[in-house]
Amino acid sequence: MSDVKYKEKVGYGLGDTASSMFWKLFGTYLLFFYTDVYGLSAAAVGTMFLVTRVWDSFLDPFVGVLADRTRTRWGKFRPYLLWFSLPFGLLGVLTFTVPDFGHTGKLVYAYITYGVMMIVYSMVNVPYASLLGVMSENPKTRTSLSSYRMIFAFIGSIIALFFIEPLTGLFGKGSVARGWQLATSVFAVLAVAFFLCTFMWTRERVTPVNDARGSLKDDLKDLVRNRAWWILLAAGIAAVIFNSIRDGAAVYYFKYYVGSAPAWLDGTGFSLTTLFLVSGQAANILGILLVTPVSGKIGKKNTFFGSMMAAGLLSLAFMFVDKNSIWLMLLLQILISMCAGSIFPLLWSMYADIADYSELKTGRRATGLIFSSSSMSQKFGWALGGTLTGWLLAHYGFQANMAQDEAVLGGIRSMMSILPAVVCAVSSVCVAFYPLTEKKVIETSKRLAAMRDAGNIADAKE
Q: What are phi and psi of 55, to 5 degrees?
């Protein structure tokens, strides 16, 4: 029987519903917002993404170290959801606000609001991710929690993608900028409420075998020597670049390459972009539902490898799709997204396994530091993916709100197909060398449980 009940799994999942609404808006629409609504050039936005996201990526491990050393009556990680949920919502709205400034003033405002938003995102999401490692010591329960997390994450993505365009139209009343600000305000309120639910409904149960506070130097030294961590970090970065490039290019692909929506979408209030992206998120959930039984049979490593290889091959096929073959685009999107959807619950569960293995080898548990590396890999991959998208558009000669020439259109198509396929191959090669087999993970869990039991018996005798 699971040591974590259904309500707690839902509570944990809601935390990623909150994060993912804005993660998906940032990954899919922020570049488009800055170029086509805000008025910045694609190259300037690409550079801003590189500066703000890369330095913020390296902030995550320090947030993890801070969380590892936090001591409150609520635990180490849960308090951050309480303390930073409201700033998260406020900064989310300010990021999608168009100030009445000149070009330079707007660029500075974008750097500040988006940069601070990424800091607050780290202060919430790193402890939230680390929470998985202390809710249960059972590897199967962790995979289940990770699956709940990712299902609710994609539900958050669906909510954001499904409603963002209708809400901007509803609230805009002739002002697109006003529509974006008010629409994101709705998501901000929901995000704050969901974070508070996670704080109230979850519990921290796993205590380290040795609860003495080790030095930061020792924790970092252990991490640098952890081969499994390096391999998973590289595979995770590549997986996020894959998603980031496809998501960032999709809006441009349908606006400038595909063009007008088919007649059967007329009067629905939804664009072809929305249908494409939402169908992908729904397919992600199918992939998550399949990952637990599949990984239970063939292992997490093999599931990860096979999913990335399949996603890469299917992405290549996208290059040969005619712009009028809407149903084929949707079919490929569903199949690609099912493969991609299985990756992220595996990543979070595998980082928990790495935390256990590190504790067994070193005698110290650095859950926050190790889980922060996953957040770092996501942000770093996201930074590279978003930056590449902006720079490539500029390289191809993209100009916002104008008809694009064949070079630009060809470049946008390659960003939906060839480039993601290459990144998938890189991720697959990395994970092929991952050393923690299912047998080793189970053995590690049993040995740590025995050590904790022995420590509890010793404490009781004292």
A: -65, -35
Residue 347 burial (C-beta neighbours within 10 Å; 0-12, 13-18, 19+): buried
Residue 237 CB: number of other CB atoms within 10 A? 25
- Of residues 310 and 441, the one with the higher pLDDT is 310
- Domain with residues 6-461, CATH architecture: Up-down Bundle (1.20)
pTM: 0.71
Q: What's at 365, amino acid-wise?
A: R
User: Which has the closest alpha carbon to 16: 120, 126, 134?
Assistant: 126
Q: What is the arithmetic mean of pLDDT over 281-293? A: 85
Per-residue confidence band for 386, with pLDDT thresholds at 50, 70 and 90: confident
Q: Which residue has the tokens 């609001």?
A: 113
Residue ranges covered by each domain of the chain: 6-461
Length of the chain, please? 462
Q: How many Å apart are CA 238 and CA 244, to the nearest integer? A: 10
Question: Please, are residues 18 and 194 in contact by the beta-carbon 8 Å criterion?
Answer: yes
Distance (Å) of CA 38 to CA 99, 171, 248, 251: 9, 17, 16, 16
List all residues 6 or more positions away from 215 whose beta carbon is below 8 Å from its beta carbon. Answer: none
